[in-house]
C-alpha cells in the first residue's frame, strides 16, 4: 500500500513538473520553391498549422513541416515543392534510439582499455548530453599530457558549457587558436558529433605518430566546445525535437528563448538581420551579449586569444554550406576574403572528390541571408580570427530529413568533413 502511494505520488509530481513532449507524428515536411516571393508564400501558409524549418526564406526555398490535419489543404495550394519527410514524428522516433556508451573510465574495464581512445562506434547513433560529456572526458584521459577539459561558464539553466583544449609539442597555450563551436542551434544534432570526430582524429593521429597530423597539432592550440547551447540541446531530447534557441525567459513575453547566433556583440544594433520579437526563432535579445551563454563565450574567446585565433568554425545544419564573413552586410568583407574563399573552395572540392557531397561556398550574407550578431561575425570583426566560418552540414536542403540526419549518416558526414579539414589545414 505504501509503495503504491509513493509511486502514485511521484507520478503526479512528474506530470506537474515535466512539460509534455511535443508530438510531430504525422507531420509532413516540404521544401517549397520560393523564387523571389518568400513573403507571398508565407501569406498563403498563414492559415495552416505548420512549423518553419528554415528560419528565413533562403534565396530559393522555404522548408516547412505541416500538421497532419492540414496536409491536404497544403497540397491543394499547389505550391512548387518537394517532400522532405513523410512523417517527421516517425523519423524522430527512429533517430532517438541511442546506443549505450561504454566510457573508457568505466571501472569494470581493464587498465589497457581505460587509456585507449573511445571506440568509433560512438558515431553510430546520437547520444545524450551526459554521454557527450563522458566522451570528451575519455578523449582527455587518452591524451592526458596534452589536453584538459575546461568549463567556460554556465548556461541559463546552469549547465556547463564545457570543452576540450589540446596542444602539441610546444606545450599548452603557446600557439594560435583553432576554435570550434557546435550546437548553438539546439536541433542541429549532427554538429557536435562532427566536432567530436575532428577531436578524435587529431588526437588519434598524434598518438599514432601520423606525421601529417602531428604537424597540425604541433601548430595550434585547439579549443572545441560541442554545446554552446546545452539547455536547448537537452530540451530537444526531452520535450521538443525542433527547439532552436536557448531556454532563457524574458519578462516582456511568455515566449522563451534567444537565438544565440544573433546575440554576439558586433553590429548587433543593426536592423534586418535578426528579430526583436521574443516569439521568433531568430530573436536577438534585448541587448548584445545579454544571454548567459554569449556572455560566457565572449569572455572565453578573450581568454584564449593570447596568440591570435587562426581558425574559428561554428558547426550548424543543414544545407551544406561553407560560409565566410560577413553576415551583417552583403557588401562588407574581411580584408582577406579572397584567401578565405579560395580555401573554402579547396575544402568543398576535396569533399566532393571524397564523397560526392556538394557544399556551397561564399560570404554568408549574400550566399544565405543577412544575420546580425552571429558568432563568425564577432570572431572575425572583433576577435580578429583569420578564418571565421559557418559550416552547415548535411543534409542538403532538397533531400534528406532536414534536422533529422539519419544516424547511419553521422559517420559519413564526419568523415567528409575530416577530409575537408585536413585540406583546410594544408591551405592556411
Ligand atoms: O541562421 C543561422 O544562424 C544559420 N543558419 S541555420 O539554419 N543553421 O540557423 C546561418 C548563419 C550564417 N551566418 C551568417 N549569415 N552570418
Ligand atoms: Zn544553425
From TrEMBL:
Active site: 392
GO-annotated biological processes: proteolysis
InterPro entries per the UniProt record, alphabetical: Peptidase_M14 (IPR000834)
Cofactor(s) demanded: Zn(2+)
Signal peptide region: 1-18
One of the record's GO molecular function terms: metallocarboxypeptidase activity
Cited SMART domains: Zn_pept
PROSITE patterns linked: PEPTIDASE_M14 (PS52035)
Peptidase M14 domain mapped to chain residues: 125-428
Protein name: Peptidase M14 domain-containing protein
The species this protein was found in: Cylindrodendrum hubeiense
Amino acid at each position: 500500500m505504501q509503495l503504491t502511494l509513493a509511486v502514485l505520488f511521484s507520478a503526479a509530481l512528474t506530470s506537474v513538473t515535466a512539460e509534455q513532449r511535443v508530438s510531430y507524428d504525422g507531420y509532413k515536411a516540404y521544401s517549397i520553391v520560393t523564387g523571389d516571393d518568400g513573403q507571398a508564400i508565407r501569406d498563403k501558409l498563414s492559415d495552416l498549422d505548420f512549423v518553419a524549418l528554415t528560419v528565413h526564406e533562403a534565396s530559393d526555398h522555404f522548408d516547412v513541416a505541416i500538421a497532419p490535419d492540414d496536409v491536404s489543404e497544403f497540397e491543394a495550394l499547389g505550391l512548387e515543392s518537394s517532400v522532405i519527410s513523410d512523417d517527421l514524428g516517425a523519423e524522430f522516433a527512429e533517430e532517438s534510439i541511442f546506443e549505450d556508451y561504454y566510457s573508457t573510465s568505466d571501472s569494470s574495464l581493464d587498465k589497457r582499455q581505460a587509456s585507449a581512445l573511445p571506440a568509433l562506434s560512438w558515431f553510430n547513433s546520437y547520444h545524450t548530453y551526459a554521454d557527450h560529456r563522458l566522451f570528451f572526458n575519455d578523449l582527455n584521459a587518452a591524451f592526458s599530457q596534452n589536453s584538459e577539459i575546461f568549463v567556460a561558464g554556465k548556461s541559463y539553466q546552469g549547465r556547463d558549457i564545457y570543452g576540450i583544449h589540446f596542444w602539441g609539442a610546444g606545450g599548452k597555450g603557446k600557439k594560435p587558436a583553432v576554435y570550434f563551436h557546435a550546437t548553438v542551434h539546439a536541433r542541429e544534432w549532427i554538429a557536435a558529433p562532427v566536432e567530436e570526430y575532428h577531436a578524435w582524429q587529431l588526437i588519434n593521429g598524434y598518438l599514432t605518430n601520423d606525421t601529417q597530423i602531428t604537424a597540425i597539432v604541433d601548430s595550434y592550440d585547439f579549443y572545441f566546445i560541442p554545446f554552446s547551447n546545452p539547455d536547448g540541446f537537452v530540451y530537444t531530447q526531452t520535450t521538443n525535437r525542433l527547439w532552436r534557441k536557448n531556454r532563457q525567459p524574458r519578462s516582456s513575453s511568455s515566449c522563451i528563448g534567444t537565438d544565440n547566433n544573433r546575440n554576439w556583440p558586433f553590429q548587433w544594433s543593426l536592423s534586418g538581420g535578426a528579430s526583436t520579437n521574443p516569439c521568433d526563432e531568430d530573436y536577438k535579445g534585448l541587448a548584445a551579449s545579454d544571454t548567459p551563454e554569449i556572455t560566457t563565450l565572449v569572455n572565453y574567446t578573450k581568454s584564449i586569444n593570447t596568440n591570435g585565433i587562426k581558425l574559428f568554425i561554428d558547426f550548424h545544419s543543414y544545407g551544406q554550406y561553407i560560409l565566410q564573413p560577413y553576415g551583417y552586410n552583403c557588401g562588407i568583407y574581411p580584408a582577406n576574403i579572397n584567401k578565405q574563399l579560395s580555401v573554402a573552395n579547396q575544402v568543398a572540392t576535396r569533399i566532393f572528390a571524397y564523397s560526392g557531397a556538394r557544399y556551397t561556398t561564399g560570404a554568408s550574407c549574400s550566399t544565405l541571408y543577412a544575420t546580425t550578431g552571429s558568432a563568425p561575425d564577432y570572431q572575425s570583426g572583433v576577435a580578429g580570427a583569420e578564418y571565421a566560418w559557418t559550416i552547415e552540414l548535411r543534409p542538403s536542403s532538397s533531400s534528406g530529413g532536414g534536422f533529422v540526419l539519419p544516424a547511419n549518416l553521422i559517420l559519413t558526414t564526419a568523415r567528409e568533413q575530416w577530409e575537408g579539414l585536413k585540406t583546410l589545414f594544408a591551405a592556411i
